[in-house]
Amino acid sequence: MNETMKIIFGLVGGLAIFIYGMNMMSECLQKAAGEKMKKILALLTKNPILGVLAGALTTAVLQSSSATTVMTIGFVSAGLMSLPQAISIILGANIGTTMTAQIIAFKITDYIYLFIFAGFLISFISKKEKVKNIGQTIFAFGLLFLGIETMGDVMKPLASSAFFVNMIGKVSHIPILGVCVGAVMTLVVQSSSATIAVLQNFAAQAGPDGVTSIIGLTGAIPILLGDNIGTTITAVLASIGQPKDARRTAFAHCVFNISGAILFLFLVKPYAALIQFISPKGNEIDVISRQIANAHTGFNLVMTLIWIPLIPLMVKIVMKLVPDGKEMGAKALENPNYLDNKLIAQPAAALQLVAKEVMYCAKIVDEMIGKLQSGNGKIDKENAGIVEEKAKILQKLYASINDYFAALYSGGVLTEEQASQSAGMQSILCDIDRIGQLTREIMETVAKQNKGKHKYSKEALKELKKAMEQIQMIYGSCIRAISGNVDMDIKELMRQKEDIMQLDEKMRKNHIARVGKGKCDSKLTIPFNDVLHNIDRIGNSCVNLVEVAKENVTMQAFFAED
User: Fold this and answer.
1) Among residues 263, 189, 201, which one has the least CA distance to residue 227?
2) Which parts of the chain span the membrane according to its record (predicted)?
3) Can you give the residue ranges of every domain in the chain?
4) What is the mean pLDDT of the chain?
5) CA dist., res. 394 & res. 369, Å (int)
6) What is the CATH number of domain 341-558?
7) Which of 75, 94, 428, 550 could anchor a disulfide with 300, C-beta 3.0 to 4.6 Å?
């Protein structure tokens, strides 16, 4: 194998190890962080400063600004976050992503295999999930640096190549060319952290004089700016087919990085001098990796400080780029309002959206029950049609949510605690769906008899209305309980269920009495008993919801703490 092929294979192989290690570390950090991720997400407030902090912390944990940006777009798409709030998160994400470059700048070459062995040992021996995740994080950290070391070793022969040195010299002296090189590299690799790692390693190679860097800090900064532009493509791709505010969030990411690249392109030499002044001193090839990391951090800090007070201007810019108008790809009623498949890899965020979707289903069922007991005891055609339509929507949402759960489980991204809580949420969803379908059956039974020869008496319809009013009351209380309302009295809910059972028995006796007096047709006994049976089953499902709430499996568990 000739030297060129060795370099190419070594470079792509080292890059593959680096990206694999970084992705593995990101996944394991998410699992190890557990509840801390919720506290980070709790900072997603309307305060821009806290939004920036949240974006930076989330990205530091996820080890990827692209992941944070995709998550933010998902929240905006679901209507859980406003555009100005999302922009502040994006600003913070750009700061958080510089953490990887800062870590890379530490020279831990001699300890790479120690990290790999220690991480493997911890994850192999430990039986506790959190400790295993910590071990795998350490293992992935070692792989990340092994990839960097591999790339560094294969790059050394390039420094002695006259052709390559000449080509790099052109890039160093033509900043716009460096920006293009950086942007293209990141577009191909789809990770600015990876391309900056390559840049740090390459810059650490000595030039022909054996002392100075082959590219120097002034040559590296334009490539660094291009890396920041290239990483915006992930956000743009994630926003395709999303609502306009989600697309605006992606464009805000582009505006931030492109405006920064244009500004700093005119300040490359003075900025390089500033970074050299504040960075550790020493031989250029020994300190340039840290200088590049500091330049990356400094760029994002400066641009964030510039844009924080100008967020309203940023909003106006992106609204011009993505104007109001006919919404393309708007979701149909039966499609999920909150679920986003792009967030499967971020379970803390994904489960938050699932909880929102389940509560949306609960709202649909509440509306169905309301239609059944409205109209002063009369079941009209319009209400029957509405209940039927909502029941169909509910079934489709139920299937979509279960498919989403299946994707989360099969993806292996859930911790044991998250998986346990998810099972509780699935139980809640099943009872909500069951109550919805039973409500539809009651409506169908009553509406069918009212169309026929044998009709229910006014007394029977009024009793039915009263029963559904009680059902709606206890159902509403149950939903508030599983929403995390700590003021709900579980014992009171159980008492309400007993009231429904007593009412059910009373309605059966009253029906028999009316049949005996000739007020109700005896042929209605079977369908009327079917209605009462379904009411009883709804009551049982409400009890199930109460039991789940008693076990503290509430939707509040999936939301960030206030």
Assistant:
1) 189
2) 6-22, 43-62, 68-92, 104-125, 137-155, 176-199, 211-238, 250-278, 298-319
3) 3-321, 341-558
4) 80
5) 13
6) 1.20.58.220
7) 94
